[in-house]
Amino acid sequence: MNSIIELRFKLIKETPCGYWIRNERFYGDKHKKWMSKNSHKQFACLTQEDAMISFQARKKRQIKILTAQLNSAKQSLKNSKTYEFKKESEYFI
Questions:
Q1: Domain locations along the chain
Q2: What is the DSSP letter of 31?
Q3: Which burial class, exposed, middle or buried, applies to 32 when counting CB atoms under 10 A from its CB (0-12, 13-18, 19+)?
Q4: What is the tens place of the pLDDT at every residue in 47-73?
Q5: What is the pTM of this model?
Q6: How far is residue 71's CA from residue 39's CA, in Å, rounded to a whole number?
Q7: Closest CA to 18 of 34, 42, 32, 2
């Protein structure tokens, strides 16, 4: 069973447009990340509740995508079983 891993980030600086954050495991400036306040899709969430809502929305979307891919593969397999070859002289690669 897969587990959920929470990554925590430290708020370095808040600006009118966004935040500078850093992973708690790294301390150098090269590991800073900019996060806009106005972006619809954000790199990190401000609360655990928002992070869980975001996680659940991503997983629901993933399920929809993978279900559509599975249904497409099943349909292709079904279609291949009823496929008729037209001529014996044609080559198929």
A1: 7-41, 45-83
A2: G
A3: middle
A4: 999 999 999 999 999 999 999 999 999
A5: 0.71
A6: 33
A7: 34
